[in-house]
Prior knowledge:
Blueprint: H1 13-25, H2 28-34, H3 39-62, H4 66-81, H5 89-101, H6 106-120, H7 127-148, H8 154-174, H9 176-181, H10 189-194, H11 199-204, H12 210-235, H13 242-261, H14 275-288, H15 305-308, H16 324-350
Amino acid sequence: MPWFSPNARPTRPSDLQICRDRLRGGSRSFHAASLLLPERFRIPASALYAFCREADDLIDTAGKEGGYAVALLRERLNRIYAGAPQNRAADRAFAAVVERYAIPRALPEALLDGFFWDAEGRRYHSIADLEDYAARVAGSVGVMMALLMGQRDPAILGRAAALGIAMQLTNICRDVGEDARAGRVYLPLAWLWRAGIDPDVLIARPVYSRELGGVIRAVLAHADTLYRFAAPGIAALPLSCRPAMHIARILYAEIGREIERQDFDSVSQRAVVSPQGKIAALLRAVPETLSLPRASHAVASPAAQFLLDGLPAGAARHDEAVAWYDIRNRAIWLIDLFERLERRDQVQRAG
C-alpha cells in the first residue's frame, strides 16, 4: 500500500528525493537511524524532517525578521492543512503525510510556537521552562514520528515526546558555545545564577569554566532521565521500527557521553560522536531492541501533556511481522556505511 492516501494529491518522485537529500545533509544521527526504517516508514519520516528542517533553517537565517519568518511558516501550514500546499517539495510531501496519517494541526503548530520563542530571543528560568520549549521544537516531532508508525496510545506518545525533549536538551548542551557566540542562552537561568554565571557575560565572553560545566552536567543528567523514560515507548512500536528509534536514542545519548569525556566543555569544542563510536552504539543497540522494557501506563511530562490533549483515539496500526535477520542485515549494511565514511575521513585528513 502506498504511504500516502489513495485520495491524496500525488507527491512527485522528485519531491521525495529532495526530502531524502535534506535528511542526508541535515542530522547525521537521525539520517543514520532512519536507514534502519523500512521504506514505507522512512519516506514519510523524510518528508516530516524536510518540512521541519526548512522551517528551522528559515528561522535561523531570518535574524531580526524572525517574527515575520514565523508568520510565513504559519501561512505555509495553513495551505498544507487546506490541501493546497505551496509549490515547494517539502510542503507537498508534508501535506501528503498530514492527510495519510491524520497529523493534528496542533503538533506542527507547537513546533512553530517554539520557533517563535526563538525569534523572540526568549530565555528559560528553570529546567521546567526549558522543557516547555523543548516540548515544542522536539517533543512535537517525537509525537508526529510515533503517529507515522501507527501509534495512538497517549501513554506511548508521551514517551515519544520525552525522547524528543531529551534529544533537544542534548543539542542545547552540545551547542552552548555556539549559541552564546550567536547571542543566545538556553541553559536554565536559575542554575546559571546559582553557579555564579551571568548569562549576559557568557554571551559577551563565551569561556568555559568548571561552574558552567556543572550546569551542563545537570542538564544532561535531566536528559538521561528522559531517555530512560522513553525506552519502553520504543518497545511498543512495530518491530521493524524499533531498531531505528533505539539507535537514534543511543546515538543522541552518546553525544552527552562525549560532552562528559570533554569535561563538560562545550564552549571551546563541539562534541561529535566518531564513526567508531556510532558503530559501537549500533552494535549495542540492535540486540538491545529485543530486550527493551515494556511500556506501562505513565503520566507524560507536564511540559508535553498539551501535545497529547485532543489527539484522536484509535488502536495502533502495526505492520506485518518482520524477520529478525532482515533487521540484522540492515544493521550490518549500516555498519559497513559507517566504516566506509571513516575510511573516507581518514583519506581526507591524510590529504
